[in-house]
Batch of 2 targets.
Target 1
Amino acid sequence: MRAELAAVAMRLFAEQGFDATTVEQIAAAAGLTKRSFFRYFPAKEDAVFGDVDILGEQVIVEIREEPGDDPWHCLHQVLRRWQQQIHDSEQAQTRLRLIEVTPSLRARLHEKRAEWRQSVSDALRARSDPPLDAFTADLLTNAAAAALDTVTQEWARTGGTAKRDVLLDRAFALLRPDIAGVAN
């Protein structure tokens, strides 16, 4: 239901604009009450990120379960599998345009990214043997997030014609750390 409600919200935001769309309108279009809306999302801004949150949770699970010892390779493989699904939909393009023109959404995106980065860092630390220290896990996570952001920027700059997987592979190759000798 959360994903369906997010899709209804995105449709209304695209038609009417974010600020002009009320929670009441979203709830009514989904056949819910305003109170029911807030059971799924704490704020209207969160409806923009509803399906991204669900995918983010799945990415975290895969990071924990990815075989192998190299945390950078793990991030690369998991994010490579998911990035196309996360960004290729028409809804993703609509979301990016909406965030670009709405200050409250840019702020919420910043918060969401910080939360996601912490979850990824925790997942890397939980899966590594020997365990990664917090600094290294945070650094690898932030480097991977920078790679994703740069891929998205280049993809947008090319009008969506660039191959995201090729860009992601290039970014991970350029940023590949040598952590074999890093002490925890």
Target 2
Amino acid sequence: MLKINSIHHVAIICSDYQVSKQFYTEVLGFEVEHEVFREARNSWKLDLKVAGKYQIELFSFPDPAARPSRPEAAGLRHLAFEVTNIEGAILFLSAKNVQTEPIRVDEFTGKRFTFFADPDGLPLELYEI
């Protein structure tokens, strides 16, 4: 059986970074953990803590497409599930005829991850801890 430990984070691409940053920090009260401008992508990435835990990634991209799917569209970017063994999780999904992308490494954390999709095409991620 696939063992998912918890939800690791939710990533959201916003259409107006400053407005969204103000909403998530000043209206909802999420704490800024880390903020970085990714020059190569002309994109901001804001890591937010919810109830003392890192749970929300807020991204900006120039002119994101107005659609609820990938790639890099306004709205929900993907939902990530924390796993201990990414290869085991991929094998389990493969046995259920779920295709995953090649494993990648997060450039900021060095952690491994992969993406797959639900039946409606919603991007989902396995993130190894």
